[in-house]
Amino acid sequence: MSYPHEPEMIAPINRLMISLDCEPISRYIRLMTYNWQLPDWPEFRYELDGLAESLLAFAEHAGRVEGLLEGLPDDLGTEAVLELMIAEAVRSSAIEGESLDRDAVISSIRNRLGLNAAPQPVDSRMADGAGELMVAVRNGFRSPLSEETLFAWHRMLLGGSTSLRVGGWRAGGDPMQVVSGRIDRPTVHFEAPPSGRVPVEMARFIAWFNDTVPGGPKAIPQPPVRSALAHLYFESIHPFEDGNGRIGRALSEKALSQGLGRPVVLSLSRSIDVARNDYYEALKTAQRSNHVTPWIQWFVGVVLQAQCDAGDQIRFVLRKSRFFQRFDRGLNERQLKVLRRMFESGPEGFTGGMNARKYVALTGVSKATATRDLLQLARSGALTPLAGGRSTRYELDLA
Questions:
Q1: Which of 290, 315, 340 is the last residue in one of the domains?
Q2: Per residue in 97-123, pLDDT tens?
Q3: Would the pLDDT of 283 be above 60?
Q4: Mean pLDDT within 131-137
Q5: Bridge partner list, 45
Q6: pTM of whole model > 0.70?
Q7: Which of 108, 111, 199, 211 has CA atoms 20 to 30 A from the CA of 187?
Q8: How far apart are CA 167 and CA 154, in angstroms?
Q9: Is residue 374, in this structure, part of any structural domain at all?
Q10: Residue 312 CB partners (closer than 8 Å, separation 6+)
Q11: Is 126 found in the same domain as 203?
Q12: Domain co-membership, 63 together with 168
């Protein structure tokens, strides 16, 4: 069997090296660059000896997060899950350099979860599609993966595009490359299989995904490991003209949910976005070989961080509820608007704190009024002043 860019004399040597459980010689020959060009594709090899502690921690944190949710009143539990879904939609698009209107995403998700008494209009097609995808992945996590499912997800994300092939595999003779840098001197990080191979590759990927589900004939029992492999496998095929990263992360979430037997409660994209450069570097390295232990180690670490962040988010929602129970009365609409905006930043806090200049921008009042409102919030205990700088900055007091 021959492979693209593989000289005839190299193929038998590669097969011999792999039979001896050695790295294929083509790994050291630049003529064969990417994982899908190697003769062992897509037989990923990895060791989990150093991951036992992290995998156990994931299971413990997942149970703890579920317990935290169950301990909240229904409305607060729903708010916590909603905040994580919003973060996932917004951050997954941010990784691809696209900015979503957060309020539009909120409306889209709430509409589809039936949380609005009457459906709210969503002005942004992109935000509406991202919200629709989040709900579809969450509600359909038990369903087997299919070509139709992936096409439907793609239409949700990019259905408004008139320049892309939407709801179908990419086609054409041009190579699908992941590049950066100048247009005239681009750096090619990865080149995916030719378009003609995509239908066969994706049929094999879909079969693999369904076979490795818990209880499947090739079950992978560790949810984060299967999630890591699914993401790498899908991204290496890169089957769509656009939207591959967002759909790849949705597949990782589906794999985690199937492994837990319930919708996973976390925002994987938020944790990846924080380490975006490391993400691209880890993925680039993993796409050079089918020995993928380092990739799995990195990805499991990100999943574990996302699970810890989810716990912080749930506790933050509880503190937010108690905060407004304490301060809701006696505050004017300007103050409430600013406080709600500060809470939107989540447990990590409002970037740079709140000051009079930002207050003016958010409310449209004069600087004198902004300063007076902020001082009142500080005296009441809602905000804490921060030292330093030319103007006083404030942060939420959640003690």
A1: 315
A2: 899 999 999 999 999 999 998 999 999
A3: yes
A4: 97
A5: 291
A6: yes
A7: 199
A8: 5
A9: yes
A10: 347
A11: yes
A12: yes
- H or E segment and range at residue 186: strand 186-191
Instruction: Say whether both 346 and 215 belong to one domain.
Output: no
Tell me which residue range forms the domain holding 285. 49-315
For residue 168 the two structure tokens come to 């179908």
Q: What is the CATH number of the domain that holds 392?
A: 1.10.10.10
Is the domain of 67 the same as that of 167?
Answer: yes
Between CA 271 and CA 303 the distance in angstroms is 8
Q: How confident is the model over 25-69, as pLDDT tens digits? A: 544 444 458 999 999 999 999 999 999 999 999 999 999 999 999
41 found inside a domain: no
Domain boundary (266, 283, 315) is at: 315
Distance from C-alpha of 14 to C-alpha of 18, rounded to nearest angstrom: 6
Q: Is the sign of the CA dihedral 64, 67, 71, 75 positive or negative? A: positive
Mean pLDDT of all residues in the chain? Answer: 90
Quick one: which of 388, 373, 280 has its CA closest to 331?
373
The larger pLDDT score, comparing residue 41 to residue 8, is at: 41
Express each pLDDT in 295-346 by its tens digit. Answer: 999 999 999 999 999 999 999 999 999 999 998 788 999 999 999 999 988 8
What is the Cβ-side half-sphere exposure of residue 270, based on CA atoms within 13 angstroms? 23
Interacting residues of 57 by C-beta distance below 8 A, sequence separation 6+: 304
Residue 181 shares a structural domain with residue 222: yes
Q: Is residue 17 over pLDDT 90? A: no
6 and 69 belong to one structural domain: no
Cβ contact 386:394 at 8 Å? yes
Give the distance from CA 146 to its chain's centroid: 21
Closest by Cα among 171, 139, 167, 135 to 152: 167
* Total tally of structural domains belonging to the chain: 3
Residues 249 and 137 in one domain: yes
Residue 265 lies inside a defined structural domain of this protein: yes
Residue 20 neighbours by CB under 8 Å, 6+ apart: none
Here the CATH number for the domain that contains residue 95 is 1.10.3290.10
Residue identified by tokens 């009457």 is: 118
Q: Does a structural domain hold residue 341?
A: yes
Whether residue 316 contacts residue 324, with contact meaning beta carbons closer than 8 Å, is answered with no
- Residue 340 tokens read as 């709600």
Q: How far is Cα 287 from Cα 190, in angstroms, rounded to an integer?
A: 8
Phi first, then psi, for residue 294 (nearest 5°) are -60, -40
Residue 2 has pLDDT above 70, yes or no: no
